[in-house]
Amino acid sequence: MLEINALAKNFGGLPALDGVSFSLAQGHITALIGPNGAGKTTLINTITGVLTPDRGEIIFDGQDLVGRKPHEIARRGISRTFQNLRLLPTHSVLDNVLCGLTVKATSSFAAAMLRLPGLRHRERLFRLQALEMLDRFGLAGKAAWPLAALSYGEKKKVEMARAFVAEPRLVLLDEPVAGLNPAETAGIAVLLQQLRRAGHTMLLVEHDMELVMRISDQVVVLDSGRCIARSTPDEIRTNPLVLEAYLGKTGRAA
Questions:
Q1: What is the C-alpha to C-alpha distance for residues 133 and 165, in angstroms, rounded to an integer?
Q2: Do residues 112 and 40 both lie within one domain?
Q3: Which of 166, 201, 226 is the C-terminal boundary of a domain?
Q4: 106 is in which domain, residue-wise?
Q5: DSSP letter (8 states) at residue 213
Q6: Of 252, 251, 166, 171, nearest to 208 (Cα)?
Q7: pLDDT per residue over 92-110, tens digit each?
């Protein structure tokens, strides 16, 4: 589904990504791990068009995404979450999830102003779709709540619900369990496995090695902007390069 070919990005002459190459299989969870500063979030930002790589290719369904704007990439079926929550604190939980459906909004300004029947029907469908996704994340009963009334763990779920609500072909999850307690992390693990069984493809950036090894089909390891390993979780556990660069230094979580 997604092929990263020789991707490179420099900041002030320093390489954040240095010839990174790997691919994602449809319907799988691929974990992207590495120490802080390895280039993981930079990679997500290049895939989503926030950053433009200096060289290399990002091939999604046979087309190169390099040079395309973030909203164009989103409309092609790629969504994401963020390391730091990017939500609307003064809006309701439902409104925050509805934001994820803007990629499907095609009405003209005139239709929106006139409130034509077709637009109203589409809005009702969007609300039902958002409520169904909130139900999957266990938050349908809090749809009308202001976002500020939720716990941090629940806000994390809202951001993930927003990422999945438009049924994207690929979801990029940037540290979805950072700051969560073990029970909340276990709950997210179950949800991600359910979403994979439903056919979703995910690229998971995460420091929680127990989660990574439990739910991932493939693990890609970055170190100083370079891809030093990509294999199954069992093989990554014993890879000497990975142990030296990451797992051996940080333990199960970094």
A1: 6
A2: no
A3: 166
A4: 89-166
A5: H
A6: 252
A7: 999 999 999 988 766 554 5
